[in-house]
Amino acid sequence: MTNFIQQWTTRPTHAVALATLSFSFFSPTLHAQTADNPQSVLVTAARQVQAAKDVLADNVLLSAADIASSGATDLLDLLQKQRGIEITRTGGAGTVASLFLRGGANAQNVVLVDGIRIGSSTSGGATWSAIPLSEIERVEIVYGPLSSLYGADALGGVVQIFTKKGRKDLALQASLATGSYQLRQFNLGVSGQIVDGLRFSLHASTEKNKGFSATRTGNFSFNPDDDGYQQSSVSGNLVWQASKDLELGFNFLESYLKNQFDAGSFYDDRATQRLETRALFAKFQVNPFWSSRVQASQAVDRGSSNAYYGSSFSDPFLFYDDSRFTTKQETLSWQNDVKIGTDVLQIFAETRDEKVSTSTEELNGKRSTNSLAASYVFKQDAHLANASLRYDHSSQYNGKVTGNLAYGYRLSQELRVNASLGTSFRAPTFNELYFPFFGIASNRPERGRNGEIGFAYDDGAAQWNASYYHTKVTDLIVSTSVCPVLQAERPFGCAYNVNRATLAGFTAGGSVKFDRFTLRAALDLQNPKDDTTDTQLARRAKQHANLALDYRFDQLKLSIESRATGKRYDDAANKNRLAGYALLDVSAELKLAHDLSLIGRWNNVFDRDYELIRTYNTPGSNVFVGLRYQN
Fold it and tell me: Mean pLDDT throughout 185-213?
């Protein structure tokens, strides 16, 4: 990070900007904990704190209480129960995974940790298995095109993760859990105020799972051995309120994952994944109307594998994989918020460097993106609106302009209707550009155009949201079996801009409380379609739904949850069908004391056999039991 800041300040224009920043400002954007009640606000939808009832973009908020009571053992277990989200995995927890947001592919979504962008520039998208749920305090999911705020890849939406933060009072958190497949988890954290104005937080966790065989009979790399994982992580932050107008801070996350997988039938194939984020930030209140924030951050996605692809050491087609791949993203951002009555004008600039270092020499390189954006959030009586415009200039794909316009109208205090239009784009990955015999250096960014209408209802006891969205994607990059160009150099196909796609559907969800019961439901009816081939996009269903009922009595909470998914196809040609499935989970939480809780969960109660990827296993019926202490 020090080298990054030194390099950035040596550029004349950057040095001037940084000098200006010394006298400038930033709002509490991207830090939910600055709000009095973090459960009632979102920051991701507009890069600023907004009351949840004023957010026009379709969204889901998962609070610390939601996460704690979910009984989920990892982040993807938690997210797959939310509307608009589907996942795939090459086995159990710890294996390679992807997340589809409203039908958008893993590389078509932006993932942030405390405002720091993470992900792999080679494969595209976040490495989900490396993100530890134990370090997470809050999750915000915002659906729809957000490139006008976050730049490349925010085509399907943005998922922002907030790690645990410190408060003024000294607090201790600890949890211990065990479960099926010899799962063991232990978490410990402490936070508080060192001296007046200086807050800190430090959390660490470790977990281990023996797992089950990642593959099943029929897979070319089938191996019946168990494929488990071991993960350790630590996160922390330090915030100094230097004066009533100036706040300085530092936060970080470190996660290390070792997992087993199946590449062949005779070797214990292993992989490692390391996720690192760190950021220095300063927030300054210039005057009652003008605030500013500058942040220098770094995210590292580092992985390696040790595997033999083949049936034995005598296999003539035996292939040994000892690959290493690292993506380092270094970002400097400056955001200014100006209050104009009840409105907010926002202007921000950003520079981001992506550096790729791998054992495949052709992939090694760097891509730089400089961005300038502005947005305006309007609020007057029953009217709500926001508009944003962003320009991104990349050293690889030149310039892209994206915009978004949204309007909402309150028909009553409880009911609001809204509509929006937006554009977005996804940058090609380094694999799609430079991988030997596959990438095409001239590949262009994918482009998206979205239109959306919806409503939101909240009367305190019931909250419901519904939206119809329609996104057209052009210049879709797909893996072709016959490369349209350079066929002699790409005899087995390539990545190329040849297709168009439509991501359209209806999504609805919400909850209602009555007496001691809370009913929660979500429904997605979508048509993720490849318009060029008239086929359903791979591994995405046209229907999926969730239904849950919670019951509270004194210190006990009982929940029963079900989720169902329609048929999918494992391939782009729609030849290999994946059957639909329905699962039932039950959970309980008992408060043993004011600061001590017992949590239990039984997943896949009826032991359903289902597939997320063809010939890869999924968990059978399994249980989880844990103790949680928080003073």
Answer: 95
